[in-house]
Amino acid sequence: MRSRFTNYCALLVFCLLLPNSGLFADSYDLTIDFTGMTPHQGQKFALRVVDSLSGMTAADTTIDSLSSVNYQLSFEDVLMEGQSYYVDFYADLNKNGIYDAPPADHAWRLMAPAVTGHVTLSFAHNTKFTDVSYPADLGPFDLTLNFMSMTPHVGQMLQLRVVDSSTAYVAADTTIEYLAGADFTIALPGVLQVGRSYDIDFYADFNKNGTYNAPPVDHAWRLMVSAVDTSQTLEFIHNTSFTDIMYPANPGPFDLVLTFIGMTPHVGQKFALRVVDSLTGMPVADTSIAALDSANFEIEFEDVLQKSRSYYVDFYADFNKNGAYDAPPVDHAWRLTASTVSGTARLSFTHNTTFTNVMFPSAEGPFDLTVNFIGMTPHLGNKFELRVVDGASGYVAGMTTIKAIASADFQVMLPMILQAGRSYNVDFYADFNRNGMYDAPPVDHAWRIMISTASADTMLSFTHNVNFTEIMYPMPVCGCDLNQDGMVGMDDIVEWALGHMASLGYVEPCLDRNGDGMLKINDAIMLLKDIRMGTCPDVMGPMLAGAQSGRTGSRKAESLSRDQIEYLENLMAQLNLTPEEQAAYLFAIHGDAGKSALPKAFALAQNWPNPFNPSTTISYSVPEGNAEKVTLRVYDLRGKLVKTLVDQVREAGAYSVYWDGTDQSGRQTASGVYFYRLSAGSFTQTRKMVLLK
To answer: Going from the N-terminus, what domains does the chain have, and what CATH number goes with each?
Structure first.
């Protein structure tokens, strides 16, 4: 029985205990100044700092006998970005050595809400007491659950989570993917906070569909613990008094477990396997064994399968022992399929001679595509669009748009879009009738080039001709990168506005954001919303996710008319921009002439939305007079790097980065708490965000 347990509390405690460990935590100090504590000289004094959401004690101290009436307490690196805290303390007025509710003892509570930096609080003695229920033991405490007579659920998945009854904070969760016995124990160390009450929700996946369904389809129960003051041991005997606990669906990613049997003919041979998304052709996992030492073995990949996706599991044994893949029967190769994943996938394979040519690649990829266009004179000034489509699945691997062809000879580069072993159609057209969208030839001129079995970076050349192809190019999916600079931001709001001014009765489809056939301020507001939320289709695709928005340049003020500048500045007043957005907007209009509007200091904003699913926007600022190497990285609770979003020199300005919840390999990350850290020169700041699926 394999149990995976995520204890966010314990991990956060780990982070708090290692403030200078170089992981990711830029925690903040707390300082409290006490004055006029004369009535309590010589008495015991105790204080603790408590996270208001989780109930976790972030810091505590006890003074056996107050020797001064005015004093200061300081705690280093105990407050986390964005969190709120109670500061509870009491003086042992009746000198019995333990806490008693006021007025027997004198107790108070201070607050540190939504922490954004170091906090200093002041307290002057008063008689406005608060019963802080100061515990004798601060915890945290263990939770042990003994399960008995779970016979009806042997062989099924069991999921359990511990939820704070008042805040809905998930203190711990665990999954047993396959119950091996009717009687078992789950131990969750250090998950209960003193004075808090919890719901312990759990269910058995009775219908074996890999997710929670309300009883009686699945069997679910709830146990409760109230006002915790010590470690808890609970007993549960199987019964049919079910409770609909509304257990959240497992968002993935999920594990893949592969069992191989009877591989005797290949002992001593090289064995290679890869797991490929059947739609995109993108490999999500791979492994190679130099020489099989057993006929029966198991391979497991953790967190590689995304919910509702389907995968090919391709593998081969190097039967001719030449060190490379050869099509069967020279080598022996097979394919398994994991279809429409909803949970951990378990596949079994017994050796057979029903081979499949899986075209196992010698190079992993992904690969670049470069297309050189020659003699496109008939289309100077025409809009040009190109997309690369997987020939088997129809998946769009990459696309680009040129607003107006400026030269008869030009080059299009699409980095890292071709997956090893896949074939592609490269479809493109010139908008010959200039109506802003694709029409079948000869109204527009369209062509197709084909790539068979990608195995390396590919360069194609195309010379203009009249051998047109009906490529059925889809209606445009309007992105946010209106000025075609490869990024999205305030420059594109300015581009929308200039397009609005120049429309003269023709409504460009991608400017009409709400599709009502008119260009109005509401269209600009919708564009701004997409940019802020990271829902722009041109930055959310698998190959473009994580694209940055920011100020890369500006129009020179002299290139805009007085009317245009006045219109753009009036529009800004209607858009309710943040100060950072205003600075970027003004720079897009005025360039260096708007320098006074640039940020005055480095800053890292709280991501928005937060919590988020599936994407979020992170904004940051580089101050006037600086051009710094900037890194922006996302870490998980263990301090492991998840993804680098920015790693380059940035000039002064306000920037936004979209994170779509994927890791460095493009795989979706699991729900949970993440940290993002901005570093630029001597400046470093860390904030917390929550991915909640």
So the answer is: 6-124 (2.60.40.10), 139-237 (2.60.40.10), 254-350 (2.60.40.10), 367-463 (2.60.40.10), 490-691 (2.60.40.4070)
The residue length of the chain stands at 693
**Contact status, residue 162 vs residue 202, Cβ threshold 8 Å:** no
| Tokens standing for residue 611 | 């919590």
Name the pTM for this structure.
0.42
* Lowest mean pLDDT, pick from 351-355, 606-610, 662-666: 606-610
Omega before residue 216 within 30° of 0, cis: yes
What gap in Å lies between CA 405 and CA 620, rounded to an integer?
34
CA 185 from chain center: how many Å? 33
Cβ neighbours of residue 17 closer than 8 Å, sequence gap 6 or more: none
Helices (H) then strands (E): counts for the chain? 6, 35
pLDDT > 90: percent of the chain: 38
The tokens describing 649, both together, are 């020199």
19 pLDDT exceeds 50?
A: no
Cα 87 to Cα 29, 41, 134, 607: the distances in Å are 13, 20, 11, 27
The neighbour count for residue 262, using CB atoms within 10 Å, is: 12
Q: Are 461 and 375 in contact (CB under 8 A)?
A: no
Chain center to CA of 593: 37
User: Among candidates 46, 133, 139, 140, which has minimal Cα distance to 97?
Assistant: 46
What is the mean pLDDT of the segment spanning 391-416? 86
Q: Could you tell me which residues come within 8 angstroms of residue 106 by beta carbon, excluding any fewer than 6 positions away?
A: 39, 40, 90, 91, 93, 127, 129
pLDDT in tens, 612-655: 777 787 878 788 776 778 899 998 876 778 898 888 887 777 77
Query: Has residue 54 got a pLDDT over 80?
Result: no
Distance CA 265, CA 319 (A): 9
Give the separation between CA 257 and CA 108, rounded to whole angstroms. 55
For residue 232 the two structure tokens come to: 């808890």
Identify which has the larger pLDDT, 638 or 329: 329
